[in-house]
Design goal:
With 130 residues, the protein is an alpha+beta fold. The chain has five helices and five strands; from the N terminus they run E-E-E-E-E-H-H-H-H-H. The strands form two sheets. A three-stranded mixed beta sheet has the order 3-5-4, with no helix packed on it. A two-stranded antiparallel sheet has the order 1-2. The radius of gyration is 28 Å and the shape is elongated.
Length: 130
């Protein structure tokens, strides 16, 4: 890419995954000038393996994610479960006792944190201010 007769930069790729043959297209070289540019396909053995890139550790199960969401409290868990398919919800029935315990612990922890953050002169939620 040039501007005012000077090379100002830009990125041009030579190869790309996801295409089956070379692709040629006009690219702007100067303000009023376009030149053809060709991108060649990247051979499959050089293409990054997407599944390997995503998995950094052992694959998490639905039950593992459910427990993690339950540790975040009822609101987080409910938001997550609304997006599940019916069969996924059925699978969680086996660990429902564990989920309920984690939800209770998270909600209790949240109540304790809220009480600790309260200003000493604040009126409790179940009382009216004078």
């Amino acid at each position: 890419m040039q501007f005012g007769g000077l090379a100002v930069g830009g990125i041009r790729i030579s190869h790309m995954s996801g295409i089956s043959s070379a692709v040629t297209m006009p690219l702007t070289d100067k303000r009023a000038s376009r030149k053809p540019f060709t991108v060649k396909p990247l051979p499959e053995e050089q293409a990054p393996k997407r599944e390997d890139d995503r998995q950094q550790g052992p694959k998490r199960t639905l039950e593992d994610v459910a427990r993690e969401k339950a540790r975040g409290g009822q609101e987080v868990y409910d938001e997550w479960t609304r997006r599940l398919k019916p069969k996924q919800v059925e699978r969680l029935a086996d660990i429902q006792d564990d989920i309920d315990r984690l939800l209770d612990e998270a909600d209790e922890r949240r109540r304790e944190e809220a009480a600790a953050d309260a200003f000493p002169g604040d009126t409790p939620a179940n009382e009216r201010a004078a």
